[in-house]
Amino acid sequence: MSKPDRLSALISRFDLRADIVNDLSAANLFLFGCVESGEIRRIEFWPLKSEVVHSTRDELIVAASIDMGGEANPLVQALPKKIVLAVDQARSIQDLSQLILSEIVEARCGRATTIRRLFEVLVVILLRHAIQSDIEKTGLIAGLADDRICKAIVAIHERPEFEWHIEDLADIAGLSRSQFMECFKTCVGQNPAQYLREWRLALVRKDLERGERVKTVASRYGYKSQEAISRAFSKHFHCTPSQYRLQAR
Question: What is the CATH number of domain 143-248?
């Protein structure tokens, strides 16, 4: 059986965008190495721009601004403060880094679009690295790293509107109900119902920020009425969906 895609649903729900920047205060992804030789040696990614601490080791080759939805994205909140990857850890990273550098140096057609896409690919690789290397901590990343629990989490991410029951998710994970509840709480730090509720509300908030109607959003994410979504949203964010929508606009 093929492994579930642990990242695509998360990334697709919150737009991933990458841009090269000259202003380092706007950057949160850095490629370090030797300017003279053009060799990239190390990559640093700070998911939250507000937490960036500039490094003095090596020389900065290029910096980029990566936007994944900021603190509103549960994945961003769950990631380590800083992800560091040595370029020589994998041939694919070496090749991708040098391809980014060549696109920056050479004025080719479609250069800006190509560079953005390459940086987006690089971010996905860094996220994979985070899942593989940060499994000791409790949270979303630990849940995604668990071969059983991740199946239930991916199901929630892909179908937030579905009326999930614990038995459904336990069956997806291949565990008994009691085993699933215990493993999920141990890995993620909250029970499945809490995680589903917070995932739905994160998506609701994102769509309201885009100006979508409360009734439309409620239907999209499995709320049976505007009253139901208003109660859940107000309890979590301390304002009604309509008030939040107006503030965001």
Answer: 1.10.10.60
